[in-house]
Design a protein that fits this description.
The chain is an alpha/beta fold. The protein has one domain: NAD(P)-binding Rossmann-like Domain (Rossmann fold), CATH 3.40.50. The chain contains 9 helices and 13 strands. A 6-stranded parallel beta sheet has the order 2-1-3-4-5-9, sandwiched between helices. β6 and β7 form a beta hairpin. The longest helix has 15 residues. The model has no long low-confidence stretch (mean pLDDT about 95). The chain binds NADP nicotinamide-adenine-dinucleotide phosphate. The site of NADP nicotinamide-adenine-dinucleotide phosphate (NAP) has 25 residues, from α1 and β4.
């Protein structure tokens, strides 16, 4: 198959590229560094021409409007009728007022109404992202964490494998939302802060839980980022991932 990966230089996209190449597909990675800009549309139509599948991993969390929302619209308009779009989104994005998640929800809505063959796959936070958030406020012997914060974080490479599985599957007849993807276990922010410290060979920190301030923090404190009923779990655990870092 001819597979194009948007955001093919990113954390997830580069693993999708590797996996699809390993399976013998003809793969093109696109992003600004290959001359394709979703925020302007430069190079897009040529890049996706003739693709059997496009796995859409490009994103700009700091400026999601032009890339995640308008860029997704541009991408859909550039696709030929034979192309299956596999789009990665975030578990619980529609339950949070966090600006980036609002943009991810808008992108899903664009796809739901675009009339093109699309599979939307939501994943939970990747292990590296959960580690960054939960470890950000550990200073000296104290770790500050949002009270209630928890992750069911997932191995990025496993998500990449499942996205390639979707790209290889028969093209759906319109818009499909696939089963959500998540890692094998739920860990609190405190659990992760302690694991990170121990991994660094230091004593477990004293963890202080802070109350949420504002709607975005409240939604994380209420664990809207955790999957609901219909979820497929897989990939390595947080500890197994941490051991590889
Ligand atoms: N990180 C997580 O925990 C997580 C969890 C669930 C779902 N996801 C979703 O997974 C996807 C990939 O996330 P990631 O963490 O792999 O992101 P990432 O590492 O930040 O990669 C983003 C990619 O987008 C490209 N990009 C940015 N702006 C662009 C533009 N204007 N035009 C074209 N390409 C552009 C970047 O390449 P250039 O800089 O070369 O343009 C890069 O390849 C996102 O949709 C994200 O919402 C992430």
């Amino acid at each position: 198959m001819r597979i194009v990966v948007t955001g093919g230089s990113g954390a997830l996209g580069s693993l999708v590229v590797d996996e699809a190449r390993t399976r013998g597909h003809d793969v093109t990675a696109i992003s600004r560094r290959t001359g394709v800009d979703l925020a302007t549309g430069d190079g897009l139509t040529e890049a996706v021409r003739g693709a059997d599948a496009v796995v859409h991993c490009a994103s700009n969390p700091r400026k999601p409007g032009p890339v995640d929302v308008d860029g997704t619209r541009r991408l859909v308009e550039a696709l030929g009728p034979q192309t299956h779009l596999v789009h990665v989104s975030i578990v619980g994005c529609d339950a949070s007022p966090f600006g980036y998640y609002v943009a991810k929800t808008k992108a899903e809505e664009i796809l739901a109404n675009a009339g093109v063959a699309t599979t939307v796959v939501r994943a939970t936070q990747f292990h590296a992202f959960a580690a960054m958030i939960a470890g950000a406020l550990t200073k000296g012997p104290v770790a500050l964490t949002l009270r209630g914060l928890a992750f069911q974080s997932v191995e990025t490479a496993w998500v990449a494998r499942r996205l390639v599985d979707h790209a290889e599957a028969p093209r759906p007849d319109g818009f499909v939302r696939a089963t959500d993807l998540a890692g094998p276990e739920v860990l609190t922010g405190a659990d992760i802060a302690v694991r990170l410290r121990r991994h660094a060979g230091r004593k477990a920190p004293h963890v202080l839980g802070l109350p949420a301030v504002g709607g975005a923090m409240r939604s994380f404190a209420q664990r809207t980022n955790l999957p609901g009923g219909d979820v497929e779990t897989g990939g390595c655990t947080f500890d197994e991932w941490l051991a590889t870092t």
